[in-house]
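Q: Hi! New to this. If I give you a protein sequence and the SMILES for zinc ion, can you show me the bound structure?
A: Yes, paste them in.
Q: Okay, here:
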Amino acid sequence: MAGFYDKPMILCLIFTISFGLFLSYTSAELQRFLHPAKTDGSLSFLVIGDWGRRGYFNQSEVAFQMGKTAEKLDINFVISTGDNFYDNGLIDENDAAFEESFTKIYTAKSLQKHWYSVLGNHDYRGDAEAQLSPVLRKIDSRWLCLRSFIVNAEVAEIFFVDTTPFVNEYFTDADGHKYDWREITPQKSYVTNLLKDLELALMESTAKWRIVVGHHAIRSVGHHGDTQELVKELLPVLQANDIDFYINGHDHCLEHISDTESRVQFLTSGAGSKAWRGDTTELNREGLNFFYDGQGFMSVQLCLTEAKIDFYDVSGKVLHRLHTSKQLHPSI
Ligand SMILES: [Zn+2]
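A: Thanks. Here is the predicted structure of the protein with zinc ion bound:
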């Protein structure tokens, strides 16, 4: 694993140097990484969310199945949709939970790839900055967690958005929890600036597939339901820029909902460990294609003309597939 992290960092540097002027004109605030697709131009990755529980609540079983699928698909990387470490994030960058819930759990050779991660609300209840620290990358070079950033994976561009600061109740009614808001307050300007950077980056993206990843759902029929702040502030940006998929965790389930007003598909993969909450509502909701209350994960396979997204349960069984295609040269 030594040096594993170095290659994309060097690529990022080359990318940054090569496109320095372009970058400074586009999105100064969102850090960009280049992650090359496969030699045939295709890309595949797994998505997991809400997982870090030292192997308990079927985390290890899900990890085992992820390893098998990752090998079969020869994945490029893994995406974590946040709530990486329960119950309250990491205490600091030396917290043993990092190795006990990550390094020692996702051990398959096929999972020794980059893990691009965002923070969830539970991560903000600990030392949020610890998860962003290069110290963790020295312990396990797979790990890359930032608040908001962009991965250019050639056939797709993936925009990671820090959604916890959008949610007002964490600031006004924390329910006894303490959140690490260093670098976040004042909330309003943090969110406004983030949306501005995202919008600019989306507007200028020319990738065939454009995917936005956040921790909180925009649309969900699970326990937490829709996140109203994201419906109001983030969704219009995604609709206006014609993104393909919004991927999130937070609700401990797997689900696929189609937007009723645009082509955006909402995909929840937040079933990395504790699940079976059993308080689902709105199962007759318009646009709902699939909902599963138990543990599992998701895979995404992309090429220029097709996207194939599969949802797996804890035994590795495919429960639902979204298969969509695009014309190579869309008519104008
Ligand atoms: Zn959450």
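A: Residues 1-27 have pLDDT under 50 and may be disordered. Let me know if you'd like me to explain how to read the tokens.
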